[in-house]
Input
Amino acid sequence: MRPGARNLITDVPGLRVGNASDMALRSGATVLVADRSFVAAVSVMGGAPGTRETDLLAPDRLVQEVDALVLSGGSAFGLDACSGVADGLRAMGRGFDVGGQRVPIVPGAILFDLLNGGAKDWIRNPYYDLGRAALLTANESFELGTAGAGYGATTGNLKGGLGSASCVLPSGFTVGALVAVNALGSATVGEGPHFWAAPWEMGDEFGGLGPCPAPPPPEAVLPGKRLGEATTIAVVATDAALTQAQATRLAVAAQDGMARALVPSHTLLDGDLVFAAATGERPLADPVADQFQLGQAAALCLTRAIARGIYEARGLGMQMDWRGRFG
Output
């Protein structure tokens, strides 16, 4: 197994990612879009999620494919980023055909960044424009760290951010992850620079420090944020041809990657959520073995993407970033 050419979720052929950020607002939005609609699913394991159109991602629903997935800051206000993306896609002629009317299907999830010191006294919700702008910038290459949905993100001890990673399996399938890290927990061990994700690092993608040589003993952890202030929201994607039920299992398996990289994770105070996307370019040769390997790869990519999001983030004055603290 090796990283893809970019080590980004866009190593999955046909996928593009766009970011839009507002420096004054200290927030932003990120969109994942493809050349055509794609199968999508979701797994929610946090206790405080904020979502749009996730009900229709269940395998028994009429609509089996979506046109884009959105990650946004702004708490519930950030859900309006999906409207900006939907209108942009409709103008492009994209969407589910209902009697000649095109209705873009754009599920999304939000994180809470309203207390990070940005200008939140808007008269008109700014997230519609951020979503539309993110769609228009969608490309195979995109910025990590303090960008898009991760622009104003924080964690229990370090500046949060936007991360991504990919891998190519021996079977030829490509898997990638995209994540906005705004966790209650920490991506690093104790007070040191080592990442919980270190055993799964490929090369020196987040510093190459290796595992913590002497991790601290387990102890009771008290939350550093209040109810609703924490969330890690992510997308894992593959070029495999999956049904919505199979994609749901991919999203569930990817949650393991979040638990490896953030301590604690999936708490009552987090809204932890993973979308799964499958572009359907490569059929499964062995439905059982291939799904098994894809799930493991999705967890691996999400683990690495979370650490990369912290490693690449730059501080905005409200919380120290990894490089500023550890050089």
Q: What stands out?
A: The mean pLDDT is 92. The chain is about 20% helix and 25% strand. Residues 190 and 217 are 10 Å apart (CA to CA). Helices lie at 80-91, 127-136, 244-261, 287-312, 322-326.
